[in-house]
Amino acid sequence: MNQAVQPAKMRKAKETGVPDNAAFLHPVLAKNLGAWKYHDRPRPGVLHHVAKSGDEVWSVRAGTQRQMDIYTIRKLCDIADTFAEGRVRFTIRSNIEFMVTDAAKVDPLIAELEKNGFPVGGTGNSVTMIAHTQGWLHCDIPGTDASGVVKALMDELYDEFKKEEMPNRVHLSTSCCEINCGGQADIAVIVQHTKPPVINHDLVANVCERPAVVARCPVAAIRPAMVNGKPSLEIDETKCMCCGACYPPCPPMQINDPVNSKLAIWVGGKNSNARGKPTFMKMVAAGLPNNAPRWPEVAEVIKNILAVYKEDARPWERLADWIDRIGWPRFFEKTGLPFTKYLVDDWRGSRSTLNSSTHIRF
Amino acid sequence: MAKKLHDTPNLDQLESGPWPSFVTGLKELAKERDYVVDLLGQLETSYQTRKGYWKGGTVGVFGYGGGVIPRFTELKDESGQAKFKDCTEFHTLRVMPPPGMHYDTGTLRQFCDIWEKHGSGLIAFHGQSGDIMFQGAKTENVQKAFDEINEMGFDLGGAGPAVRTAMSCVGAARCEQSCYNEGQVHRAVINTFLDDIHRPSLPYKFKFKFSGCPNDCMNSVQRADMAVIGTWRDNMQTDDELAKKWFAKHGLDELVNDVVSMCPTRAIRLKNSADVKAGDKISSVAVNDTQSLEINNGDCVRCMHCINVMTGALAPGNDKGATILVGGKSHLKIGGLLGTVIVPFMKLESEEDIEELVTLAQDTIDFFAENALEHERTGEMIERIGLVNFLEGIGREVDANMVATPRTNPYVRTDGWEDEVAKINAKKQAA
């Protein structure tokens, strides 16, 4: 920043960092910090925690749209002021939680939330709110939207959010490019480009730091070149696997395409250490159209996987645990998803994903 | 009153259905704001063409180099004029929330008032990095909004090649499985690196996440360059009363199928209470008048499964702390990496304990800053140089808990073997 042109009266930032949460905690949470005994779930959407002191707190969880207008936030504040001592918290998946110390307040609070359009659920073995990213609303490189995909999918999964009928919890995520900001999940929807970027050679020299773009490519498919007398970049299209990594540092290398940017479905990601170690999710379907505004083809694949999992998995098996037991061939058989050659990994370390045994289920 | 809404046939379809609609929210804002009318116009265009129209740039607040995500429209007509002229800039302020994302309504209402005045009126709770995202301000309003938010006691988070905003779980505030004070540790670590948050100058981003137990609700193992995950060293705690209550409700089938046989290391056995073994590593809990669960804590890997099923009847031990893993990241550039253990256990109770974690974080970031290539995450750097070189670089010892298995190939020069053995023996004797 050019200090010379800054007006002298600019306010200096107070570098206060992360604020202390003590002032924001619900009083009963503050009182029992680090001294909780157990919890149970009296109904979907409600957690009941009991402290060693004997204090009890009921947390009512509701879904939100994450990108909230100020009127929605103020409405949620009104509800918190009426029922929950003016305190709320948000979960990592943008659900809001209201804490009450009087069991009698739980039902009226739920009724008030539902009346205002906030579904109560997302606890335990439900399908909870989808972790999502920015998409067309705010991202500079999106292959699709985020909030819209989530709205469309959560409309379809609404009942599963409000019930606890899955074998174990189901976490979903969506990502608008292969960077995968949405993260690992039991089921994830991620953009999968299928054609190399289209380069606007008139702009590359002015917009892109070319060596940085060359270095960014995971398969070394980009090299500097003179095109039409201008310094630019060219792509070895036999090497390019269309990941789009070059697009953020070099916007003239347009990777997004209304038809050829597809969606892929991944399953079996798990961050928890419960039972098996944490696992990465695996690609199980691709080539789905980026069919805004409601992405019906994506919803159909996800609902199908969820229906088969719900029917076939044992209690407490996460999606990854279930597939571990039944095996990948049966996963594809039961879901009817085609196992194509593109699902055999050939990236570094891929040998460890191959079956080096005679362990085969017949 | 704002100008008339553009036709938005695609977005309109996202107003039906039972889930809360962000489109309905945007339309509410648009009633008073030409800015949001045109935002909807551009978003509808994206829905029609399936392309994004925002590009980055340089917008910040005085004294900081990051924390604002600049967005300028690229949706222009042939003459280079913005198609939606009332929304050509849509910058986001990333603001760090309190640990555990707890709020009082006074604070939330004040956020709303500030953003009503200076921004679009759209706030996301929260972004994937854990920030409160104040979405949509013009360049001229960014500083004004920040000044007011900052006066409330809130500060900008990270963006670009910087230490990023962290996340911590609800933890000790409301969870019996919490193994350390997540909020306290979160603040102690992150507030050490404010310069690295506000003035991006690292090779690439560096993220911390704080989960209170191995359930890792913050997804730290795959998302954090340094994951601080709560755990314990001593035996599991048990409660006969809660175990009997659980058994009365769930019965023998569920006890066997959902608890005993799902233990990944077969550390739990169902026994006649009279036959339960004694021993330092054994804990047991009676489920009825004659039967008990016998848990061999030496075999237990602290996965949390049985504790999740029988909350309170089984619980983390008393000697609590955390396991530290480094190098988690997503796909770019070499593929996804999960974090790797670099400290199997550290206490996080006293100020000195927490200071030790801060020192580890500082050593790690110093090494990262000096040794990572541009745009290389910590996990990729470790992949390139090897874990042992990384550990030597930050001055920490190897430990068998850091590997899933020892080396499976002979391609290593071992002529320092005797020296290493001598060092280990000397250390054993000194202990």
Structure described in brief:
Chain A is α+β, with helices and mostly antiparallel strands. Chain A is 25% helix and 20% strand.
Major sheet size, sense and barrel closure of chain B: 5 strands, mixed
The greatest inter-chain interface is formed by: A-B, 117 and 133 residues
CATH topology of the largest domain in chain B: Sulfite Reductase Hemoprotein, domain 1
Q: Low-confidence stretches of chain B at least 5 residues in length (pLDDT < 50)?
A: none
Radius of gyration of chain A: 24 Å
Give the tally of β-strands of chain A: 14
Number of helices of chain A: 10
The residue fraction in helices of chain A comes out at: 25-40%
Tally of helical segments of chain B:
14
Amount of helix of chain B: 25-40%
Shape of chain B: globular
If you average the pLDDT of chain A, what whole number results? 96
Keywords:
heterodimer; A: 362 residues; alpha+beta; five-stranded antiparallel β-sheet; four-stranded mixed β-sheet; 10 helices; globular; B: 431 residues; Alpha-Beta Plaits; Sulfite Reductase Hemoprotein, domain 1; 3 domains; five-stranded mixed β-sheet; four-stranded antiparallel β-sheet; 14 helices
Verbal overview:
The complex is a heterodimer of chains A (362) and B (431). Chain A has 10 helices and 14 strands. With 362 residues, chain A is α+β, with helices and mostly antiparallel strands. In chain A, a hairpin with a 2-residue loop joins strand 10 and strand 11. The longest helix of chain A has 17 residues. With 431 residues, chain B is of the alpha+beta class. Chain B has 3 domains: 143 residues, Alpha-Beta Plaits (2-Layer Sandwich), CATH 3.30.70.2500; 176 residues, Sulfite Reductase Hemoprotein, domain 1, CATH 3.30.413.10; 79 residues, Alpha-Beta Plaits. Chain B is 35% helix and 16% strand. Chain B is built from 14 helices and 17 strands. In chain B, the strands form 5 sheets. In chain B, strands 8-9-10-16-17 form a 5-stranded mixed β-sheet. A 4-stranded antiparallel β-sheet of chain B has the order 2-4-7-6. In chain B, strands 12-14-13 form a 3-stranded antiparallel β-sheet, with helices on one face. In chain B, helix 2 packs antiparallel against helix 3. Chain B is globular, with a radius of gyration of 26 Å. In chain B, 50% of the residues are buried. The model of chain B has no long low-confidence stretch (mean pLDDT 97). Chains A and B meet through strand 1, strand 4, helix 2, strand 5 and helix 4 of A and helix 2, helix 3, strand 1, strand 5 and helix 4 of B. Strand 5 of chain A pairs antiparallel with strand 5 of chain B, so a sheet runs across the interface.
